[in-house]
Each structure stands twice: as structure tokens, then as C-alpha cells.
Amino acid sequence: MNSKVDKELAANTTLSHYRIVSKIGAGGMGEVYLAQDTKLERKVALKIFPVELTSNQDRMRRFTREAKAAAALNHPNIAHIYEIGEDEGIHFIAMEFIDGVTLRAKIHREQADLKKLLRYLHHAAEGLAKAHAAGIVHRDLKPDNIMITRDGHAKTLDFGLAKLIEPLEESDDDELASEMETAVRSTPGVVRGTVGYMAPEQARGDTKAVDHRSDIFSFGCLLYEAATRQRAFTGQDSLDSLHKIAYGPTPSIKDVSPDAPDDLQRIIRRCLAKDPDERYQTIKDVAIELKELRRELAGRTLEITTTQAFGIGVPATTTTSPSGTASTTAISSARYIVGEITRHKKGAILIAALATVAIAASILFLHFRSARALTEKDTILLTDFVNTTGDSVFDGTLKQALAVQLGQSPFLNIFSEDRVREALKFMGRSPDERVTRDVAREICQRQGLKAMLVGSIASLGNHYVITLDAINAQTGDAIAREQAESENKEQVLHALSEAAMKLREKLGESLQSIQKFDAPIQQATTSSLEAFKALSLGVEQQLKGKYLEAIPYFKRAAEIDPNFALAYARMASIYYNSRQYDLAASLRVTTTT
Question: Is 83 a domain residue?
Fold first, then answer.
């Protein structure tokens, strides 16, 4: 064994071009050091792996493949991997050094309030969505793997590292060192992971069932702990905890924190469903839900703060609405102000002036808020396009293209196709039913969505006219409309992109936001209608759970347009989740070259 790993590395020890500064952590996955990259003159976190984890070549190859894929991720909420290296038999991974504390410290030591914790977890969900879209599953989400920077941003660590301690296929050929709270497996095929945060399929050892939805369960455990400051599943020992995860009832945050938001309870319960099919199907949906919840909580705070400010700090009678939100009785505040003016005539002018300014400000605030057709809290549902051209190439294609275009917007929340299918099943309809205007309105009313976007395409001689109608799903009133004309079929995607951009402004998104997040459809995806048609057919198969049947469509899309990165990414995700890692890796290379 190399003498360097026999003991703690001293300051100024060098590994490759990294100079050790100090030790900053340790665990079953190895020791972590703060180091200086002498080539690029930057601080890095250097994780040194113990020999027992790196001695198996098959395991190392699998880990290296996963870590390389993770290193290709570029997202502000993912800690970047700089290098996977080896020096004199010592294997290490160089990662972004994050100056901050763990989520665990924020929850338990600092006792951060729920709104801050939800902000961190919202960030983490966005980063996780990026990883899942690339076909990368974390497998070991826990509060220690999420760092909070000094400026309040969350970054998730250790993507791919679980591959080092996951058994090779169905064997348990070795007993590896693990953290105190990492289960030591003695039965074949069981996936390692931290007890208390692993998914039921991991706890049962069903390695083939582990996918991105396993991360969603673990994320639900993080949400539960943030809301209650307790673990969701705690037993007398590791085996008891595993049994509770796999077979025990889903805990309620209300039992521990009665004042926790109802929506948070709903989100957590769905994340913690035992059956992966009953969980959220994408972490992006969880991120959207958290975004809406955070705005709702911020709105309540703004309401209370604004009322207090307009009341100039005076006491007021409060009532409680059916939702449990405190509201201030305006009459009591007004009476108090009048009384104070009568008692203190010298201050009457000042108080009257302040009251006038406050009232004017509130009127302006309400005016500008109501002038926006939608707010960032609203979710919009896309209908299937009405196609009167008789050309089937537009069927499904334009809706998919519009979803990609609007998905760039940080302002608009799109009701996902997975959630549409779930809503249809709940309504007793086929999940494959066309989402017409009437069906969309019923879904919106049942789901509490404010708006739906109805798209259509019609032919006008040799030209095509695209119409986008945003409609208030609760009242049926028109919110906004945009039309665009295309001189020929080849320009239809461009026309759709232009219409979508203009509609975003009409719906209330700022010009600055639109300019920043508005890559044209043909630039962000493909300029080929035929390629997009093939992609949409593949997505349709994916939504039905027919993943392997989707691959030929994605291949066809890539053949038509070899630069269609989205088609390669879809294929890579399917190959990865079906354990065809070499094929997945080759496609990831294609998307980055």
C-alpha cells in the first residue's frame, strides 16, 4: 500500500498538480482535503478514496464512467467535478470547493426557518433535474451531500460516487467500509445507501428498480426533515429503519409540525410513495411545486408585512380565514389612526401624509399586479394543437415544440405531460386521450390551474397561420392571443417560436427575461419538422412507459438532423436507465461534440 494513504496527508503533500492545504472531512467514501490546484491557481476539494474501494477494477471502471458523465453537468446547483485522477496508486477526485455548510447543519445546528430551507431544497431539485435529464441518478441523497454557500445557494455533491459502493450486479463479493449510518449489506443484490434516506426499492435490494424516482423518494425524506427537524424513518437499528422504509406507513409532517403548510404535506406524501409509479415522475415537477409553495408563503408574509406598514405599526383586530391565514381588519386600523390624530393634533399632518402615500402605493401595487395576465405563481396547461391543414406532420409536433420553447421561461410554469396523464386517469379517462379545449378546461378546474394555452394551425393558400390563445380556464375569458404566419412548411417552427416569444410578453413576462431566455426553437432543438415529428412520437411512447419502443423514433430524429441534441439526450437517458451504459456514454459524447 502506498505510504501516502497509510495516514492522514500532511499539509504541502502533493498529488498530481494538487497541493494539500488541510483536511476538511472524512467518511466511508474517503477523506476530503482542501487543496490548491497549482496549474489553475484555484481551491479544490480533493476526495481520496480508500484502497478497499478502488482495488476492484470493474467497480472503478463503472465509477469512472459515471463520474465522467457527472463531470459533464454544468448547473449552478451542482458541485462541479474537475478531474478523476490517480497518482502513485492513490485514486482521487477533484471537485469544486464550496465555502459553506451542509444542509444538515442548516436544519439542525442553525435551525434555519422553513422558508430558507425550502429555498435551498428548491435549488437542489433544479440541479437534480439537470442530472436526471442527462440520465444520471444520484442514489445517495442526504443532508450531508447538499452544501449551502455563504451567499445562500445550494449545491449537490457526490453525483456518481454511489457507484463505488454499489454491489457488482448480483454479488456481494466484499465488505466495504461505509459511514456509520450507511447500511452494511449481507444479502446479495442490495444497493448501498444511507439508512433513513434510501428508497424502498433500495432498502429491499431491488437493484433493477433503482432509477431517478429513487432520488425523488430520498428528496422527500429531505423535505420531511426540513419541515420537522426529524428523520422520516427512524428505527431501533439499521435493519428496523430499512423495514420501516420498505413497508412502514408514510409519516405525516402534521404529526410533528401541525402548522406546516398543507401543500408541503401533499408534496412530501407523494414523494414518499412506496410505489415508484405513484411518486412524482420527474424531480422537475417537484421543483415546480416547491417554487409555487415558496411564492405562496412569500405572499402571506408580504400580506402581513404590507398591512402592518400601511397601518403604521398600529395594533389591529385580526381574523382567521378558512385557510388559516391571518388577515387584518381594516376598520380597526382606521379607527385607531383617527383616534390618534384626534389625540395628537400636532402629528395629524404627518400621519395623514404617510397614510396618503401608503394608500397611493397600495393602489399602484394592485394596479400593476392586476395588469399582468399571469403571475409567477400560475401554472398553464397546453392543449393538443387543432390541425386543420390535413398534414399529419404537425400532429403532436407543434405541441412538443411549444413546450420546449416555453420551457425556457423562468416565469411560466407548464403543467407537465406526466401530470396531464395522471389527471386524465383520475377523471376516469384514457391517459392517451387528446387534450382538447374542453378536456383541458376540466383538468384546469380540477387541478386549480388558472390558464390553458390553445394552439392551432391552419393553411391559407400556400401559407400557414399559427394561433396561440391563452384562456382563463376558470372563467373561459380570453387572456391573450398571438398569431404568426409562415410562408411555407419549412418556416412553421420559426413562426411558432416568434408567436411564443410575443405571447410570453403579453402574459406578463419581462422583456429582460424573454431576451435572456429565448433561444429560437430551431436553434435550441432542430429546424426540421420531420425530425421534431419523430421526436414527438418517441416522447409519446415514453409517456406510455414504452421506453424501448421510443428509441427507433429518437434514432430517426437524429438521422434526419444529426445535430438534434435533444434526440440523443432522450436515447442516452433510456439506455442509461436500462443499464446499457456504454451506449449511453457514447450518446452523451455525441451531444457535447
Answer: yes
